[in-house]
């Protein structure tokens, strides 16, 4: 008898989808909805009563110079990191789809930085930029290595770009390799016979066929850069003079250091809207350009 | 297409690739070489090889960052969360594929849509929710968080894979008197294995390396490796001899994990992202 109700349709629904749905509702949905509410209040994280303040937080967020400059920094980082990481990854993938002997070992090497978490990566590179570069500069006398890399606004930005490429390129490379292997060889060979140059083959055959991989890689790189937090926290702490403060870091500081939770959630909501819009738009745009082999 | 024979051009490319790989490894050289030096030697010349191996750096860093405790915290949190995600994620995805009624479709759409929500955009109210449900500073609490955050991608990936499994294999088992749960565990779940490997790998790398969620949720007793590294750097800024040894120990477990399972990891990542 007990078996009967246990096997009933509603019970199955509960057993199979229940645990994931409950966890998801408590951890993602509830905070998401609450966030939308708190964004319109003066919540400070401690007080029991919160006051409804309308759009004040949003106005304050847009007027906040540190928030605006964190957006400018994040946008700039995203542009450079997304393009450069993808270019490097694609070139590495092209190289490793050639019949070279060590390609498996090389693939492992290029991928390796990616398994290390952002926080530890940032600390490792902090040492490289401060002590390692100085040592290289001393022995080679190259100006490039003698710059105060993390002490200057310009070079700190590039330091973060370099670390982003170093850690992200291997991952995207793996995706590009999988796509390149699937380009049918007879197509490129036929084009060769018809007199297409290497660049023409790349432009008209390989690029359109690896477009799905481009979609994925752009999407991934975009979301890495937009949500950049760990690496920046450990590499520059947002400095010098807050010049490398990402939006995520700005939100974190606003809420957990300045205790302005209402303002923080308003900023977080703006952040969500922009990330969601960009990623949706980007996937839609590149999907349109995909072709079937 | 380029010729498949190994000629001068390929050889040049091979050399170029090796040089690039060495360039990629330079940070590891600096990290490891200096972790064995005395503080004075690091300041003197950080590019040189260590004159003698200062194991004392490691001993000190091991104690200060309470590495044993941090490692076991990281390990317990990662393993239980990943197991939870694989079990509950596959179950939910299975039901959603096999019973595509309106509420299951709505549920699936919600899980997928939530993938565009960045963690930082809901972390502030999450702390409030964490207080209500007593999730703060507890392993079951952070376990539930990982289940919630990880379920979107996990269900999405399993959903695509379950679709490729023919219903006929299940029908045979039902005829043999298998319960609906038995059908799932004995027939379907084993068939999901390739996707389970992908899911375990993607989630392990993410959870092991995650910093922000544990930073918000866990107190000093439950520190994971990234957290204890962070607090170590807070106290011993510029004490590079100890800091680098701590970093090497911090990176080592995940690097070993990768080197042992690299074939599965690289395949898993390809499979996971091509579907995503």
TrEMBL record, chain A:
GO terms for cellular component: plasma membrane. Keywords: Cell membrane, Membrane, Transmembrane, Transmembrane helix, Transport. InterPro entries: ABC_transporter_permease, MetI-like, MetI-like_sf. It comes from the Bacteria. Residues 71-282 form the ABC transmembrane type-1 domain. The chain crosses the membrane at residues 21-40, 77-97, 109-136, 156-183, 204-226, 268-285. One of its GO terms (biological process) is transmembrane transport. PROSITE patterns: ABC_TM1. It is found in: Cell membrane. It is a multi-pass membrane protein. Belongs to the binding-protein-dependent transport system permease family. This is Binding-protein-dependent transport systems inner membrane component. It comes from Paenibacillus curdlanolyticus YK9.
TrEMBL record, chain B:
Keywords: Cell membrane, Membrane, Transmembrane, Transmembrane helix, Transport. GO terms for cellular component: plasma membrane. It is found in: Cell membrane. Residues 71-261 form the ABC transmembrane type-1 domain. It is a multi-pass membrane protein. It comes from the Bacteria. One of its GO terms (biological process) is transmembrane transport. Its main location: membrane. InterPro entries: MetI-like (IPR000515), MetI-like_sf (IPR035906). The chain crosses the membrane at residues 12-32, 75-94, 106-127, 139-162, 183-208, 242-261. Gene3D superfamilies: MetI-like. Belongs to the binding-protein-dependent transport system permease family. This is Binding-protein-dependent transport systems inner membrane component. It comes from Paenibacillus curdlanolyticus YK9.
